[in-house]
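ok here's ATPase, seq below lol
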Amino acid sequence: LGAGDGPGGGDGGGGGPGFDPELAAAIALTRDLLDRGAESDQGFLPLRLRLQAQAAAASGEPGLCTRAREALLPYADHWLVSMFGWDISGPAMHWIALCDQALGHLEEAAEGFTAAARSAELLQSRPWALEANSRLAQVMAARGLPAAPTLAERVSQEADELGMLQVAARVRPLLTDRHEPAPSAYAFRFDGAVWQLTYEGRTVAMPDAKGLRDLRLLLSRPGADVPAVHLLAPEGGAEVVAAGSMGGDAVLDDEAKRRYKRHLARLDEEIDRAPTPERAEKLVRERAALLDELRRAAGLGGRTRRLGDEAERARKAVTARIRDTLRRLDARHPALAAHLRGAISTGATCAYRPSGPVPGWRL
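and the structure came out like this:
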């Protein structure tokens, strides 16, 4: 179900060629549930709230959207988890924003989807962050914001990587009519040989460097806190981030070893079943990064290293290579270097937060 996908399929017919009886039944059931109030099993309530919002948004009926939204408001700061964790319906704010989008309250919808994406990023849940950002791109396009195609392009690329075909399809129309950017557009792109960096109408070429890769990742997630351990080993996934981010406990206790072993086994199975060579190559890189992190965690002479050591190593390494890149940019593109130095923060977590509007970076 999606906002604007009503039971008439867009032609308003109550039984014509575009009529969707399943969607019509879902909307009727939603109306009935909202009339009856909170009678259902509390174990299913979060799932019900999400489905109500989806059906209401798909109906486009203002009254239904408002009621579904109001039912979610008490849980605005929570994630919707049902059946002891068997269903995770994401941040409640995502579904509140979906109702706002259907109601045409675009500013509120943008704020809600931004908050939902931020919540998902904090939990390192890329799928839910993509869900929220795909809707945010729609809202930005509806508001005529020039950064909408850039966000849509990033969402499309990441959704394709994760096999989230519906999300990729959702933002595709935002790319269809996209014009080639003017020469003065902002760009931070790697063509496989050199980096093409454009800022305020001036372009320079730079040789590849880890600091440039760090900066590109941060530019792709404006406002988000990115752990330094993720920048140090971006292919390693959540396990590597978790292993490097915590405090003073031993890196590998018995439970952690079992968890790593299960994850490696899953990666082996996914590599065998990978639908494309590109997907297989990405999984192989993730597996290699995880094994590398395990070797570092073991320490020298078999001595177990401490998690704080890993976080500190990542902080120092990432900070040093970003600073080195900015020093080289001082000579090649002073305006870009000044912008990044003022907008990039480094430490245990790194972030890109410009003081003014976020440029529409082509990445």
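fwiw The chain has two domains: 21-176, 182-363. kinda neat tbh
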